[in-house]
Design goal:
35% of the residues lie in helices and 19% in strands. It is α/β, with parallel strands linked by helices and 379 residues long. The strands form 2 sheets. Strands 6-7-5-8-4-9-10-11 form an 8-stranded mixed beta sheet, sandwiched between helices. Strands 1-2-3 form a 3-stranded mixed beta sheet, with helices on one face. Helix 5 crosses helix 12 (349-364) and helix 7 (206-218) runs parallel beside helix 8. The protein is elongated and about 75 Å long. The two termini are 41 Å apart.
């Protein structure tokens, strides 16, 4: 590895013109079963310069390692380097930073410190209201006396800060260098949306996403939680698999609207979890019907009816309930004042639906029920 180190030490930093060796940027260099794992200090290097550096590294080393076996990771003490923005004068307490790099794999299953139950909320198709369900379900569980955390795992489209009315919040570091979650409406939450501007696109590949989600699971000081809700991105891709393989999840709650096109994609997503031995606790039909404010006894089945309950029967899992549409629900999302945090809605159809689903989940995840799922899956 001495020759490889010499090559890396000769790499020039475009920001200063100095070599990595002169600036002592190399932190870790390992050959693991023919794969090179290289970590360097990122401080003072912009995203554009980082791309240039790593292209040079791959080009210099591809005669010794295949490109697929070169894993480059970075560390940075300044989040302005990671996201390409000017950092204000250092506040107190210290601002939390993310360590973002290629090939930062999620570990084999670990427990999230302090979280008794972890429930992933999933949908096979985007646009079915999964994040709205995750947010209001978390608060509905809190209304039942539970301590709840909410992790926004949708890196490409994080919406939880908006739904909770915390768009300008910025996480800080705890005394032991953990990331302190933001508290809102009686729950704790963490989202990548807190680290970037709302208009900033995220153009990342899977391994980089895994590194951030790893931190959100295990480097956030969640404290003692009865439930940690994971708001997964739609689909059955890299992020979903990484999350469920990284930690011991109690089970998955599936969300879909009742129309056929949504059911088609959702069915695939729900089946995926069974194939990787994660129990599906049940399915929720969102936007099940519309209830006019001036005619609460009327139900308009805009997207059809019964689609999700039929899939629940087909997959032999629980149908947790249907959540109707109300104008107040849409307004609460836009304003960042979650529906289930407003006691004036108590007794209305949406309130009753979320409350019923929360109670069913508490029953399903009781120690007796959890033991039942474990026996079925051999866990």
């Amino acid at each position: 590895m001495d020759h490889i180190r010499q090559i890396l030490e000769s790499i020039k930093n475009p920001a200063t013109g100095e070599t990595f060796g002169a600036e002592k940027r190399i932190e870790k260099l390992e050959n693991k079963n023919g794969a090179l794992h290289f970590t360097y200090k990122r401080d003072g290097i912009t995203p554009e310069q980082k791309k240039t550096i790593e292209s040079v590294i791959v080009n210099e080393l591809k005669q010794h390692f295949s490109e697929d076996n070169i894993f480059i990771m970075t560390t940075s003490t300044n989040s302005a380097d990671v996201f390409g923005k000017k950092e204000p004068a250092k506040p107190a307490p210290e601002k939390a930073n993310l360590k973002v790099g290629h090939g930062n794999p999620l570990p084999t299953k670990r427990k999230v410190n302090g979280a008794k139950q972890i429930i992933a909320v999933s949908s096979g198709k985007g646009g079915v209201g999964k994040s709205t369900v995750s947010t209001n379900l978390a608060i509905a569980l809190k209304n039942q006396g539970m301590k709840v955390g909410l992790l926004d795992a949708d890196i490409y489209g994080p919406s939880i800060p908006m739904l909770l009315g915390m768009r300008d919040a910025k996480p800080v570091s705890t005394d032991d260098k953990k990331i302190a979650p933001i508290e809102s409406n009686g729950i704790k939450f963490m989202s990548f949306g807190l680290f970037i501007g709302e208009a900033d696109p995220v153009i990342w590949r899977g391994p980089m996403l895994g590194g951030v989600l790893n931190q959100f699971l295990f480097d956030v000081d969640w404290g003692e939680l009865d439930y940690l809700i994971l708001d997964l991105p739609p689909g059955t891709g890299d992020v979903q698999l990484s999350m469920i393989q990284a930690t011991d999840i109690t089970g998955v709650v599936g969300v879909s609207t009742p129309q056929d096109v949504a059911i088609l994609d959702s069915r695939k997503g729900f089946k995926m979890f069974g194939q990787v031995n994660v129990p599906v606790l049940g399915l929720i039909e969102n936007m099940s019907y519309f209830v006019p404010d001036d005619m609460p006894e009327k139900k308009y089945f805009i997207f059809g009816s019964g689609g999700v309950s039929n899939v629940a029967k087909e997959l032999e899992t629980n149908f947790l309930g249907d959540i109707p549409m109300e104008i107040a629900l849409r307004e609460s999302c836009d304003k960042g004042t979650p529906y289930m945090s407003n006691n004036s809605y108590e007794g209305r159809p949406v309130w009753n639906a979320y409350t019923s689903i929360a109670k069913k989940l508490i029953e399903l995840t009781s120690p007796e029920k959890k033991g039942f799922f474990s026996k079925i899956l051999g866990r």
